[in-house]
Each structure stands twice: as C-alpha cells, then as structure tokens.
Amino acid sequence: MDYTQIDYEAHGDVRVIRFNRPEVMNCVGATTHRELLDAWGRFRDGEAKVAVLTGAGGDAFCAGGDLKAPPVVSDDDEVAAHGRGDRPGILGPTRWTDIYKPIIAAVNGVAYAGGLEWACFADIRIAEEHASFGVTCRRWNIGLADGGTQRLPRIVGMGRAMELILTGRVIDAVEAERIGLVNRIVPRGQGLAAAMELAETLCSLPQPAMRTDKEAAVRGFGRPLHEGLSLEARCFFRSIVAPETAEGLRRFNERDHPDRQPGAPARTPGLIRHEDE
Known about the structure:
Layout: E1 6-11, E2 14-19, H1 30-45, E3 50-55, E4 60-62, H2 76-84, E5 103-107, E6 110-112, H3 114-121, E7 124-128, E8 132-134, H4 148-156, H5 158-167, E9 171-172, H6 173-178, E10 184-186, H7 191-203, H8 208-220, H9 225-239, H10 243-253
Parallel strand pairs: 2-3, 3-5, 4-6, 5-7, 6-8, 7-10
Antiparallel strand pairs: 1-2, 8-9
Helix pairs in contact: 3-4, 4-5, 8-9
C-alpha cells in the first residue's frame, strides 16, 4: 500500500509509524484508518522488533478523529459488526490486543480524544514538554470508541481516568507524568530521538521472553490472580525453551556481556555496579 496520510519507516529493527496530516493536527479519517491497518499489520506480522508511534510536525501527536470527514461507520450492519467485535477499530486497529512486541509512543504535541487513545495503545509513553492530553471530544457529544474507556483506567486507575473521561479536562505533560500516563518528559523536539534510543535498547535484548512477558501482562490484567498466574506459567514455558535462553545462560555464566564485564559500559538502563562486579 502507498501511504498518503501516515509514514512507515524502517530503521534497522525499529519501525516508525507516523501520523502525517500536520495541517489538520494529524487527525484520523477513513484513509488514515486504512493505512494504519496496513502499517500495524506489517509490524505485527513482520520481522521488526519495536514500533515507535509519533506525529508529523511539532504541534500534534494526534488530535483524534477527523470530524469534518464522513463517518467511518454509516449503516446498521457496520454498527452491529463493531458491537460484536468484528471490526479492528474506528481510527485504525485500536482494538487489536495481540501485538506482543514493544510499542513506544513519542507524544510530540496534543494527544486529544482518539489521539489520547492511540497514546494509550502504546506500552511506554515519552512526552515532549509541550504535550497535552484530554478527552476533548466530550464537548461535542462524541464518545470514546478506540480503547479510551478501557486502556486509560488500566494505566492511571479508575478514579483519575473517570475524571478525565467525564470532564474532558486537558492536562499537560507534567500532570500526565504525575498520574502515570506518561513515563518520561523530554524537551520539545527530542521525543522521537528519546523513543528511538529506548527502542534500540529493547532491540538489543533477547526477544522471546520479552514478548511472552508482555503477552502474560496484557492477557492477565484484570483476571483473577490464579488465572493470571496460570497464564504466566504457560507463557514462561514457551520462552524458556527458546535458543536465546541457552545463549543468555551461557553469557551470564561466562560473563560474556557488558553488564558483567568490569570496566565495560553497562547495557542495562539504570544498572548500578560496584567496583568488584
């Protein structure tokens, strides 16, 4: 597919997916929806290890759905199909829950309504200092249909999520970080670089256990504890037999890794080493 409203860029094992409609604050219309479906399918089913989602320009990550465009759902059959869960989402494949590779959002401006929902689609959110977040569709009597009512409470807790959902209040990056919506704030213009640096770190790690751990966390969230633990065990035993595990144990025992070599720069973020380690 030739993309006209998004970008899909390959940077080694990282894929950058970028909303590219800066003239309308990167909002999503029917064409954007179809392009996002294709791009995320390529990432999910391809060899890439990490995806970074961001917006074109310096003012917007994504301002949600294009309210000046024809509605994506326009007939009763489609409404019923969405209600049955037979459609991937309104603003792209936002209802997909089976991408077990890491996804990072580099939020470089407004993330409103559907844009906030897309930010919540990611596993980790890095916000530029001027970013802002809000369920601004509240004022137009348009509900959330791309995961906002489900993912936002899982990220920030029900009480804080309900305040944002019910009032439509816009919060800045500092408050977003304080309530746990944002993992990290960086200066304006540095969001993508920070996300790419993190993505490269994730790419350098063995992948099988990372993916099964994400799967267990995503699928187990909200289940009774005994069900989640059983799911975790099944995921664990899928990854423990991977060749990468034997190689990881070899490297650990032979100190064949920068984290275990005195004088070599550590590869694990935040690792504190003593002189004799």
